[in-house]
Amino acid sequence: MAERLGVKKSDLRENEPIKANVAGKDYAIVLHNGSVHALDGLCTHEQGPLFEGSVDNNELICPWHSGAFDIETGKADENTPWVTDTRHYAVEEDESGELLIQI
Ligand code: FES
């Protein structure tokens, strides 16, 4: 099911995550290498706010204990074994430029 994120791709800045809330759940939205990605908003470790994380190479880094996730897949970095994989969601742009998440 596609749901509106309430933001446009043009609102995003490369490698600067934002929070989007859809149906009561938070997501981390990241423009990375020109494509928009969505991951679960809360970290798989202790629910840290991934939407406040930072980007390092191809990974989103949790602001609480530095757990690292592949932005394009949600896979946890084996060098930060305290986190497990998180979910990655496809994001599309409609004809008006609004972003839709597939949940
Ligand atoms: S809450 Fe994210 S690494 Fe601990």
What does this structure look like?
With 103 residues, the protein is an all-beta fold. It has a single domain (2-102), classed as 3-layer Sandwich (Rieske Iron-sulfur Protein), CATH 2.102.10.10. The protein is 0% helix and 44% strand. The radius of gyration is 13 Å and the shape is globular. The termini are close together. The mean pLDDT is 97. It binds FE2/S2 (inorganic) cluster (FES). The site of FE2/S2 (inorganic) cluster has 9 residues, from loops.
The rough form would be described as globular
Question: CATH topology, what is it called?
Answer: Rieske Iron-sulfur Protein
Portion of residues within helices? under 10%
Structural class: mainly beta
Strand order of the largest sheet: 2-3-4-8
Q: How many independent structural domains?
A: 1
> Mean of the pLDDT scores?
97
CATH architecture: 3-layer Sandwich
Give the beta-strand count. Answer: 10
Uncertain segments are none
Bound molecules: FE2/S2 (inorganic) cluster
Percentage of residues in DSSP E strands = 35-45%
How does the major sheet shape up? Answer: 4 strands, antiparallel
Roughly how many Å apart are the termini? 5 Å
Radius of gyration: 13 Å
CATH class: Mainly Beta
Task: Please identify which CATH superfamily we are dealing with.
Answer: Rieske [2Fe-2S] iron-sulphur domain
Output the helix-strand order: EEEEEEEEEE
Q: Helix count, per DSSP?
A: 0
